[in-house]
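Summary for the funding panel

The consortium committed to producing paired sequence-structure records for every protein in the target list. Below we show the first two records in order, beginning with the earlier of the two.
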Amino acid sequence: MDGLLEGSDGVVRCFWAGDQDDYRRYHDEEWGRPVKDDRRLFEKICLEGFQSGLSWLTILRKRENFRAAFAGFAFERVAEFGEADVERLLNDPGIVRHRGKIESTINNARRAKELVVEAGSLAAWFWQFEPTDAQRPQRLDHAALIRLGKTETSTLISKELKKRGWSFVGPTTVYAFMQAMGLVNDHIEGCHCRASVEAQRSAFERPIPRI
């Protein structure tokens, strides 16, 4: 089927997983599986921002370096970073040394703290935007994945985040975040992960935002 690839291990996956062990492992074990841990959510949306103009595989292979550089993406700690930290990060060869993206991560950590005050947790805030079944296509093929680089929902989330002062959170970045964190299940029909991801999503207890 279009959009699927059988790996050298004989397993059928979404085409983008390729045939490299680290990318296949990310596809099989992480991508699309629902997450409500605030630190992981913050890490992912920041790394999606760093990916802008690059491949996700590049970021994935630097992820441990990013975690070391940004205090494990504990946003309460990153929010305290100052100019000395920016200079330190600009001299760290293990990450993407882009001043705008580094400063954006520190800014977004401060905004994340505000979002927790507003909604109770990052998870509660993000999961309130989970699309309904009626808003989702019944089947995703290769062309649909490309076409769905952004959606009405990701555009709305992007708008709401920017209104709250976040940066590097455009609609395409947000949709990639939604796909990875399980707010949608975009594993293609025929991919060996699709059913297990859907089962996890069905059993997942959605966090409720503070009223």
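The next record, for a separate protein in the list, is shown here:
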Amino acid sequence: MLIEPRPAIDPEIAALVAAQQRELREADGGLDGQATLTHDDIRYLVVVVDGRAVACGGIQALDGDTGELKRMYVRPAYRGRGIARQLLAALEELAFQQDHSVVCLETGTYLPAAIGLYTSCGYEPVPVYGEYVDNPYSVCFAKRLPVAA
């Protein structure tokens, strides 16, 4: 398994994010109206297994101290192998390298596996923020990153 950075315009990023959005629409009954798939200002990481991109996630700066986890996704056939946990750790390291002291994220109440992953990795519930405020299915979490010794 390899975790590597990729630009937002990478076709494998686009394919993974499109798959994530399809799955979200199915999970929430079509209630999630997000139209924008990728953003140029998100720094993406991709997990590659046997030459195939199987997972992705990104960090987008919210402000000087805070990075937001975006588009975290693992293809269904690769779930249950610890890939998401390893990708999350790599994304936290990326956020730290970008001088963020906090990582926050939004997910849906209809994604209990995602909520379980984030809480087991030290993320704590925070008030719903930004564009998610009016979405009744949104839940938000944040984690303070360790400081360098």
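Regarding this second record: Residues 32-36 have pLDDT under 50 and may be disordered. The longest helix spans residues 11-27.
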